[in-house]
Design a protein that fits this description.
Length: 432
């Protein structure tokens, strides 16, 4: 290994400095306990002094004192965090240490509390890192692992960000970035699949329990018995954050008939069957309008939502009104619709229409409207997930009690996507 006394680290390229730092961390992972690694991490990066790792310290000092430190440090530090995370995530015993590692960043000391110029610069760079998207993704990962170990029912005075483990459809958007390694991407994908599978099983068990309960009640009533023994059936916990009544209504909406004998699924199939007969983009938009408003029978829909939806559809992509339609055109149109109905982007957080729809027709109907788009164009699902990831990011520091409309929307979307795109049979719902 290199020694500070043998080499002038300041003359190394940024890549060489990074490699020395990464190699040092890799050696920690091979020989040290998780507790010792967290301690070394804290002294090297967070406190900025007292770390008994001369090669790592020398390389870090050279990076911190380089001309491009402010541009390079965030990437380098994020990579160092992920070297440890990627190694620990495959081991259940070590995985639970990841939140402890991430939480070290919150312990960063103010730059003015040390006389060392290099340490002051390092602490300032850590503060800058805490304002980055990379830090936000690390915190979400910490919340995901930490909360998945605990009871998933919420304490309503916690922040929205603590709920990240409940919504697998947010994980790709909220936890991964362009610089995410293949190993980390696989980690998130595996966690996402595991949580989704567990949710579907819990939902299936709950529905089976409710069906058995309905059958027992009917049996007792048929025998003119009014008192049903409490312990006749083992209760199963509602796996959502919705009340039993809200969950029942949601299941009936997403799986039941919405109008004229059509379910969401059969209505989407009918539209797809007729897709080949649509001759122009203008005609597609008219058909889409009629498809979307079906089942929205209330004054708000007729007087506010429907006119806005019609005018928006009429205004988009005017240059291709006369063109023949294809799958790509359908995807473009649906993705624009999702931006209009939910939220445009992180740079344009106007989501007044989404909140207004919820206030007037409720989360269940609103999610049903968005579900229609995804069932019609499955490639639009990532766009929908991205819209909700934007809302989640915007409100993740809010107390859950302060945004019940958002929590209910997130829960209903998880329910709607699971019952239609999941792998578990929920046909018993019609008995409830």
């Amino acid at each position: 290994m290199l020694d500070r006394g043998q080499f002038d680290y300041d003359r190394f390229s940024i890549e060489e400095k990074e490699k020395i730092l990464y190699d040092s961390i890799w050696q920690w992972l091979q020989r040290d306990s998780s507790e010792l690694i967290i301690e070394k991490f804290r002294y090297l990066f967070i406190k900025g002094n007292g770390c008994n790792c001369p090669q790592a310290r020398a390389a870090l000092e050279a990076i911190v004192n380089s001309e491009n430190a402010q541009q390079d440090f965030t990437f380098v530090f994020n990579r160092c965090c992920h070297l440890i995370i990627n190694e620990w995530q495959t081991n259940p015993r070590l995985r639970i240490k990841i939140p402890l590692l991430v939480n070290q960043i919150d312990l960063a000391l103010p730059p003015g509390s040390t006389q060392s110029r290099t340490t002051r610069k390092l602490r300032n760079l850590i503060i800058i890192f805490k304002g980055s998207e990379q830090y936000l993704k690390l915190k979400r990962l910490g919340n995901l692992i930490e909360q998945s170990r605990e009871n998933s029912h919420i304490y309503k005075q916690q922040t929205v960000g603590k709920l990240i483990q409940r919504y697998p459809y947010l994980h790709q958007q909220c936890l991964l970035g362009e610089d995410s390694s293949y190993e980390f991407t696989q980690t998130i994908t595996n966690i996402q699949k595991g949580i989704q599978h567990r949710y579907e099983l819990d939902l299936s068990r709950y529905i089976t329990y409710r069906v058995r309960l309905v059958e027992i009640v009917r049996k007792y009533k048929a025998n003119k018995q009014t008192k049903i023994p409490k312990k006749i059936i083992q209760p199963v916990k509602n796996p959502t954050l919705l009340s039993d009544r809200q969950l029942d209504r949601g299941l009936r909406q997403y799986l039941g008939v919405i109008e004229n004998g059509y379910t969401h699924h059969s209505l989407a199939l009918k539209f797809r069957d007729n897709f080949v007969h649509i001759n122009s983009h203008k005609e597609l938009k008219q058909s889409l309008y009629n498809y979307l408003i079906l089942g929205l029978n209330c004054d708000y829909s007729r007087e506010v939502l429907n006119p806005k939806l019609f005018n928006y559809l009429d205004s988009i992509l005017p240059d291709i009104h006369a063109n023949k339609v294809d799958e790509f055109t359908l995807l473009r149109t649906c993705s624009l619709l999702l931006k209009f109905l939910v939220v445009d982007s992180i740079y344009n957080m106007n989501h007044y229409l989404f909140v207004d729809m919820i206030a007037h027709i409720g989360e269940i109907k609103v999610i049903g409207l968005l579900l229609k788009i995804v069932l019609l164009c499955d490639k639009a699902k990532p766009y929908l997930e991205q819209r909700f990831a934007i809302l989640f990011s915007h409100y993740e520091s809010f107390i859950q009690d302060g945004v019940p409309w958002l929590i209910n929307s997130l829960e209903n979307l998880q329910l709607a996507l699971s019952v239609h795109l999941g792998k578990v049979d929920l046909s018993l719902v019609k008995i409830i």
